[in-house]
């Protein structure tokens, strides 16, 4: 263990989970290691394994009682970390084992929002299949608009997201303002010009 790991409060289970050492993780749990023991930043072994994409360790930890919706100090869940790093199989396993994708960080970002921001389209598609409609704090469609990302916007609209939904995050594009009220914004106009086939946007701008 190096000095940074020691100062961050990582224990043997955290380190074994990070490196994907299945046998050691299992041995530590058998000897009484607390599966949900957090680091100083509030990350459990499941957070760390999810961030590292250690899918087998993730499955073992969940089967041994790890809390799939445990939030770190910043509000990160294991599902959020897996979505952020584009670990598709970990995301899939979390969703199939009660991972709650509506849980947001202290900044209001959900797993879907961070996956959109990072351009992880396969993760975005998987999250949409499990339906977050109306449950995220930062509407996914607004993330796509802020990024000038027509591909993600089209994907979201295909999954019945409401184009008129308003963002609730302070300082974000569309915060407290409807689509029609943003028609003078440079970003929105550019996004519309690059999306001439999206009739819903024309309606939103002109009304």
TrEMBL record:
One of its GO terms (cellular component) is cytoplasm. ANK repeats lie at residues 8-40, 41-73, 74-106, 107-130. SUPFAM superfamilies: Ankyrin repeat. The keyword Transcription regulation does not apply. Keywords: ANK repeat, Repeat. It holds the Pfam family Ank. InterPro entries: Ankyrin_rpt, Ankyrin_rpt-contain_sf. SMART domains: ANK (SM00248). The keyword Repeat applies. This is Ankyrin-2. It comes from Liparis tanakae (Tanaka's snailfish). The gene is ANK2_2.
